Amino acid sequence: MTTCMKLLAKTLHGLEEVLAEELELLGATDINPLKRAVSFQGNKELLYKCNLQLRTALKILTPIYYFKAYNERSLYNKVEQFDWSKILSVEQTFAIDSVVFSKQFTHSKYVALKVKDAIADQFRKKTGVRPSVDTKNPDVQINVHCANENFTISLDSTGAPLNQRGYRDNQHKAPLNEVLAAGMLKLTNWNKDIPLIDPMCGSGTFLIEAAMMATNTPPGIKRKQYVFMKWEDFDKELWGKIYNEAIESITKSEFRISGSDVSQQAIDISRQALLNFDFNRDIKLVKSNFNDLRPQSENGVLIMNPPYGERLRETDIFALYKMIGDHLKQSYNGFDAWILSANRDALKHVGLRPSKKLTLFNGALECKFQRFSMYKGSLKQKFVDSGIR
Description:
The protein folds into two domains: 152 residues, VC0802-like (2-Layer Sandwich), CATH 3.30.2130.30; 170 residues, Vaccinia Virus protein VP39 (Rossmann fold, 3-Layer(aba) Sandwich). 33% of the residues lie in helices and 24% in strands. The chain contains eleven helices and 14 strands. About 3% of the residues have low confidence.
């Protein structure tokens, strides 16, 4: 059994509790949801599993150094006091990324620069040589988190963020972050026994994330490289065992997932993404306006990320959201309809009272993720019996 260590999983605002539940299922202990992150205890095996299997995490970090700094000089001095030869050699490349929430330190890139200088200068003083920086493919990735005067320096075990699943060969002009999509699906309490519809599917992110969940497909199945593979203590045999076990756990469960979009280009992009993960035969895709679409089941979950109105006139965006609400009332009795939007005024034109409201961020945009429960009378019990809450 490898040594237990403190770990940190980064995520998006509003997904902290969902990520904590994922970590518990993987066997993490001492789980503590934070702001856009969850801290926990685990060993090397769990660190590998987290990178491969967590759907709502962006990165897995190993904190190595905590300190307080009040200005750039004290920041430099504190960083230089740490023995970086335990982490890095002069032959290795490194990179720094930083996240800053502070009145004293207002520029994350400047904080990263000062940390880089302190590390490089320490090596130069001791050995006469500075290790090189490689921002694209470093041997050691260092993360700096600053909250006012409190600093945490961590080793990044992940590298490129975990939302990069490997199914975006052709970028849709407004793709939804894969981690956000997976988290939203979990927030709806959807499972593979419940029909799922995305009537504005865009590049198919909801569809693919749902299919991976339904078949227990690891979100990192296509990924070839993590930074932890360059660490001196990388256990290739342990990683192979974890990866093979994850592949063997994939099931060919039946599920009912369908998507549509008014854009043929979006449908084509979705089809290619589904093909990349061998889901092209399992998910039904059609080119259609939402108001021409009719459900093929008596109940289920409908999830959508409609336009927010950046490229539409106000009257047009309000009319779109009114059409969404009208069509939900007319055709989707028995469904839970979930809508993500950053346009609060447009959401009011749906004309329905939301049964749940959550706040999420799509990039820098603060969004409302709202549930509209489209059932009445005796359908309510049928809906509850189907497992939807």
